[in-house]
Amino acid sequence: MTKTDELSVEAPSDNDSRARLVRGAARLVHAESYHSVGVKAICDEAGVQRGSFYHFFESKQALMLESLELMWQRFVDEGLATCRDETLPPRERIEGMIHHAASKQHRLKARTGRVLGCAFGNLAAEAATLDDGLRLRLQQIFDDWAEIVAEPLAEAQRRDEIDACLVPYKAACEIVASVQGLMVLAKVRNDPDTITACGGVITENLWGCTNHVD
Predict the structure, then answer these.
(1) Environment class of residue 165 by beta-carbon count within 10 Å: exposed (0-12), middle (13-18) or buried (19+)?
(2) Is residue 153 within 8 Å of 171, Cβ to Cβ?
(3) Is the confidence at residue 8, as pLDDT, over 60?
(4) According to the model, what pLDDT value does residue 130 have?
(5) Of the candidates 116, 118, 119, which has an alpha carbon nearest to the alpha carbon of residue 64?
């Protein structure tokens, strides 16, 4: 089966069956959906015997929770790297996050023919009302994402670049929600450029209409 996400890149942990299952679930669920992907498909993607699955995980939910940890750590390290870079001006930190989102969707479309959208957003839309375990972990992921985005906003306030009355965390939640919305539009249109074409509004609303994402 074709590897469908950047998580397919070889790593030392791929020699371990548990790690391959975690990575395989992350790839398939992002490319398809949580409910449509069964244990057999995950084992096939990971190259692991089906009997090994229940040696490592008591359920698909347990595996998905571990896959979420892998996806979140990778997103922090790569997708939010610019946002966390304190050497950059605050606005560039936010714009870098938006650019990364668009770039990743371009890579995924080149590989799969489709814009896959945000793995966290996809899973939240599909499973959050049906599975409290996944919902609670996704809630924490989005909360932590907003906390990271709030840091450059607080710095921008200290520099008198944005409204001093702004509550950074609340504004960060709005930014995360806006990025999720752009991902949905890009997915529906199958066009990653939607993210950068419309993403400039996010920073324009805070900093004004110059030097925005394009």
Answers:
(1) exposed
(2) yes
(3) no
(4) 87
(5) 119
